[in-house]
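Anyone have tokens for Dockerin domain-containing protein? Sequence:
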Amino acid sequence: MEEFQPDKFIFSLVAIAVFSLVAFLHLRQDESDTQYIFTAANQSEWNLGGNKVTPIGVEHLDVPSNAMGIDVGVNVYTPPGYNASNTSQRYPVIYFLHGAAGNEYNYFGYTSFDQSNPSSILNSENIVKLIQNGEVPPAIVVFPNGKRGSAYKDSGDDKPETFIITELIPFIDANYNTIANRSGRSVEGFSMGGGGAAYFGFKYPQLFCTFIGYSPGPYSHVTQALTSNASDIVSYDMKFRFTHGGTNDLGGIKTFVDTTLPNTINSYNASASNDLYAFHTDTPTGYQIIDGTGHNFELQLNKEHPSGKSFAKYHAEYHHACFAEASGNPTPTITTTQTPTPTSTSTPTPTITTTPTSTPSPTNTNTPTSTPTPTNTNTPTGTPTPTNTATPTSTPTGGTGGISSTPTPSSSPTGSSTPTPSATVTSGNTIPVACGSMDTSNDGKVDIFDFVGFRDLYLIFNGPDSLSEYRCQDIVEPVCGRKDHNQDKLINILDFARFVEKYQAPTC
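Reply: yep, here.
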């Protein structure tokens, strides 16, 4: 009789338990895009909370979503010299959308940021460093949690599109000194977030001046938005850019950028009375192959553009050129004063409840001559009326919600369109960093969501057949290297079982 081996027995039990747990969570398939998501909007997936150290100039918000009935985690960067009480000084806003396994803190993981030093983010190429050092004009940068694996498209109880478009944008415009129209608003993202940025840019050209899709998720709803809103994209003269990381980027992404998008645009141009664009490499409406970077956002940001600038700086200037053109004003003067404010580790910012005192209505000078008539009455058509407004500690700011003078496509997301500007602002507390690569969701715990994180990452690009396993040699090392815990050159359920077996304590 074969000798009883306790290690193999325990491992088998763990694997069976994990399989059962995943089945219990009722993964289901989105019929339109072959995505798998959980059936309920889970608070912990939408908000990692404010108990992490954030980079210089960044604060964490808990932004209420009426559409989902939860508070969504959002990080907001304000530039040096920002004064909430000075409503005459207004800033453009850049929204950054994270990737498939990310969250509101995801961007900082692609920089030199070290939680022990909030100023460490200044040591690599990224939007915060460029603004903080005065290398590009000042802007507010918003990092929302869009939920892992959502593809930024509403599905069931999860409504990332409704939240960002009809709740978060009006909230930011009501609570910060923003240029509250498309002439002062852009969106960009990486991987799933790159696909999300393209989706929002194509579907809502009345809301954004530019978008940039770094190695974008190859989603059908992106090309659908492109063709269904092509006339509005032309009317608003939407500016956009895509990238991919060359030979080592994911195959589906390279095909999407090199072939699918150009073919979609060319097909539209052949059948329409007005041309959308010619889609060529390194043009204002085109794409750039950042060869040698693969599916790695940090490498893409730091790679030198042919102009001699980093891609991070090249694209930041690309946003600002559109801001200046759309507003009819020259490019803003670059701020050179640095005012580092280290994050406190003991005094979180208290919640303040006030009411905005002014609601200026910026003129949108880039409105097309033909204005479509919106059919969705759930999208705001005037100045949103906050029902419970909160601002950071100084005099509150006004805003138009950024939607007042622009058409809204009939396919806008449903849900509450009136923002509820009441958020808890927290910053400055740390959590232990001990889980290493096991904590794939970066939330300070090792649990089922860490398996979900790497499951979503490869599932997004490889379809439902990859749910059982994924071969590591088919994907770049930073992904497989830290997720193949079973060391069999496959990513599958056994890897999660292995790290559960290794990490008996659920908290790092």
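The chain has two domains: 6-30+435-502, 43-327.
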